[in-house]
Design a protein that fits this description.
The chain is α+β, with helices and mostly antiparallel strands. It has two domains: 5-100, NusG, N-terminal domain (Alpha-Beta Plaits, 2-Layer Sandwich), CATH 3.30.70; 135-182, Roll (SH3 type barrels), CATH 2.30.30.30. 15% of the residues lie in helices and 38% in strands. The chain contains three helices and eleven strands, in the order E-H-E-E-E-E-H-E-H-E-E-E-E-E. It has helices at 16-29, 75-82, 102-107; strands spanning 5-11, 37-41, 44-51, 54-61, 66-71, 87-90, 135-138, 146-154, 159-166, 169-176, 180-182. The strands form three sheets. The protein has a five-stranded antiparallel sheet with strand order 10-9-8-7-11, with no helix packed on it.
Length: 184
């Protein structure tokens, strides 16, 4: 088996969860696919909403219209995913799917083996010089040299949610503290 990589699939708007469910059902019905399609994700994030004066935290899709797959790309897996109801195609030029790079995977917050401690812990005692509402520059990863505004800080995960332009619209992304620098 070749090495599994992360790929992005474009879906009809609002079909992300249905596509994920359909692919998982196909894997259940075809056990040989379980070794080739390892994970299907619809990236979610916590968003603070204020309705009628009350603040609530709700989960929203990070990339509406897209699903992430960790899979071994071959003719069988390509066919299964491409012919799943709701899928319009893989992200990449023409009909050739392009896997995400390691830096793109880190920027999306996908945990890779060996990226954290054995127990999943992250280094302690990190101080930051920015706060919610500050303009920051991203200094590493796929978003390097991008400027955005800090929307949320998660001290537990040591990440900041920053609005950046993605696919032609403002999109919040989660970035590690070490990859962000406050703009003076």
């Amino acid at each position: 088996m070749a090495e599994a990589k992360w790929y992005v699939v474009h879906t009809y708007s609002g079909y992300e969860d249905k596509v994920k469910s359909n692919i998982q059902k196909t894997i259940e019905n075809n056990p040989h696919l379980a070794e080739q399609i390892l994970e299907v994700r619809v990236p979610m994030q916590d968003v603070v909403e204020i309705k009628k004066g009350k603040q609530t935290i709700v989960k929203k899709k990070m990339f509406p219209g897209y699903v992430l797959l960790n899979m071994d790309m071959n003719d069988d897996t390509w066919y299964v995913v491409r012919n799943t109801r709701g899928v319009t195609g893989f992200v990449g030029p023409g009909s050739k799917p392009v896997p995400l790079t390691d830096s793109e995977i880190r920027a999306l917050g996908i945990q890779m083996e060996g990226a954290a401690g054995e127990d999943g812990s992250k280094p302690a005692n990190i101080s930051i010089d920015f706060a919610e509402g500050d303009s920051v520059a991203i200094i590493a990863g796929v978003w390097e040299n991008t400027v955005g505004v800090v929307q949320r800080i998660d001290m537990g995960k040591q990440t900041a949610t920053i609005n950046v332009e993605f696919f032609g619209r403002e999109t919040p992304v989660e970035i590690g503290f070490a990859e962000v620098k406050k703009i003076d």
